[in-house]
Amino acid sequence: MRTYSSLLFFLIISILAQSCYRMRASKGGGQIKNVPARIMNASDIAVPAGYKIEPVASGLSFPTAAAFDEAGNLYVLEAGYSYGEVWGEPKLLRVDAGGKTTVVAKGPRNGPWSGIAWYNGAFYVAEGGEMEGGRILKITKDGTVTSLISELPSMGDHHTNGPVIKDGYIYFGQGTATNSSVVGPDNAEFGWLLRKKNFHDIPCKDLVLNGQNYTSANPLTDDPNDTATTGAYQSFGTATTPGQIIKGAVPCSGAVMRIPIEGGKPEVVAWGLRNPFGLALSPDGRIFFTENGFDDRGNRPVWGAGDVLWELKNDTWYGWPDYSAGKPIWDDEEFKVPGKEKVKAVLQKHPANPPKPAAIFGVHSSSNGIDFSKTDAFGYKGEAFVAQFGDMAPKTGKVEFPVGFKVVRVDASTGVIKDFAVNRGRRNGPATWLGKGGLERPVSVKFNPEGSVLYVVDFGIVKMTGQGPQPQMNTGTIWKITKQ
Amino acid sequence: MEDHKTVGMKKLLVISGVIAIVNACLISACVVRKAEPLEQKTFIPKNEQIANGERVFMANCQKCHPAGEGGLGPSVNANPAPQFVKRFQMRHGLGVMPSFKKSEISKSDLHDVSKFLHAWKTY
Predict the structure, then answer these.
(1) Which of A192, A251, A357, A361 could make a disulfide contact with A307, Cβ separation 3.0–4.6 Å?
(2) Interface pTM, i.e. ipTM
(3) Residues of B with CB below 8 A from A25's CB?
(4) Domains identified in chain B and CATH numbers
């Protein structure tokens, strides 16, 4: 009787807890009623004792990354595109004293310009390629733009990212077209499926499918009752069969690739990734990169998948679309969306067992740009600093409280993550959500050449609604953090 | 006329409901942020068990409870339940929280997570 009562008690608590979760509304950081004017108030941000944070530039439109030239001048990218299908002009800006900016170069309607590196007298920029495919650009200080590689498969959910330069090669990330390999109505909400009806993910090497298919509403027809059935690595509305082989190709989606510094054919370094975003060299010369994990959206939603910090290892498969942070997602309650069936594997054979992650970040934290402290002048030498853009709930999945919206530091040898710059308040969240003047959406970080100052690129305000993101131009900021 | 068993069952249901609601209210009402910049001090594990507990927490729990705060899941910093209840919850799951088998988190690691959570909450 006692066992029976205990079981019943636990069952009731369990049902109540689950019901509560499913009944509670999402409380994402972008879920604000109105869009207030951006206020900059450094005292609303907490940094460790002995450090100081202050704004150095503001009024930027979707800034994504920063770099320094050989003289130590600061440059910043404006993306020229944001989720929410807001288009602008991608720009490379020099940031002068007082926060005044000067345009060095502009790009076409093919943003977002998402990452930048300075090397041997030139900038190397990742052009996201939402409209025409991704590119890696070389830009000189006189504004001359040369494309080193083009037509990367970037017209989907995720883009061409990075880059970082090592041993004469440009390493860059290439995100996937979809959340979890199956094109669905969520991709129409992003906008791209209506433009590129045949676009889908491309594996780097041959894969064998198990024939899992997903039936959804068909956003490509006017009939609200029309449905379509879609399998992995296929155009929307194309089903798959068990044992079907998907031919690999390069360039591919969901990979870290590299090209020679002077341009040339891409080589795959790592694959089986979802959205490798920020790449950086550690003090001992290894490349680490962040990966944005699965969302709870689309035909094959995945719950509880954290973002990841990985060490880049040659010729390695990292697990997408059937693993999250090295763990299998199929038939596992950990990754099952509450109230839905467990996730099924889409691959019949997995190319390998994925490696162990260096660290696992918050689910939906959008852990993006990364840099390493290389000196005692700043402290935390050898640790990675990661900018967390913050959740995009409810479109990417529900959260109980805002996730991200801060800068964290990571000991890549232990996986221990600590907050480094975070807004003050009763809860964590972006400045607009808290009604304050601190960090909004940190998207990347960059140390100055001396390694003594950390610059934080803050994308600005992105309001989230049930219909999607509403990014606000002219609300981006650059912050700098110095050790006193 | 209700028999003894039915009355007992009703009592159990009422008590369970009250406990669940009080627990949920306590968790949502108490907000404990322990981030180092807010505390203006550094968390240094005092022994290897706490250090191991921190690593295990980071590999398994941090993604839903970053820095012990709410995120995808509720705050664990604010959870007033005793550590043995939290260990039971980790091992068996609760509601949408998944369970962690012994092959995922060993008994010894589970106790280390408890030690870490206590140390983190009180540093």
Answers:
(1) A361
(2) 0.94
(3) none
(4) 31-122 (1.10.760.10)
